[in-house]
Amino acid sequence: MKIQPILFLIAFLSVGQTVKAIDWYSEGDTLYNWANGGLNIRAEYTKSANVLGIIPYGEPVVVVSMDHLSGSTKRQ
Q1: Do 38 and 51 form a contact (C-beta atoms < 8 A)?
Q2: What pLDDT is stored for residue 24 in this prediction?
Q3: How do the domains of the chain map onto residue ranges?
Q4: Is the alpha carbon torsion for 30, 56, 54, 37 positive or negative?
Q5: What does the pLDDT look like over 41-74, one tens digit per residue?
Q6: DSSP state of 57
Q7: Quick check: 50 and 42 in contact, CB under 8 A?
């Protein structure tokens, strides 16, 4: 049957298709929030920290410091 190879191809192409955020940026770069529910700004770098505010969907954010980030997020 011809349907089976087509279904296999669709399944194969669908696996591993994820949306990836930018993996490097520099101080002064403007990024945009694409989180549908808004982006929580927290007091600390943990999910359990108090939420200080929310950046709405589509709002620009300027990178002001890279000091706390690991080498994997810095431009090589």
Answers
A1: no
A2: 76
A3: 19-73
A4: negative
A5: 999 888 899 999 999 999 999 988 877 655 444 4
A6: T
A7: yes
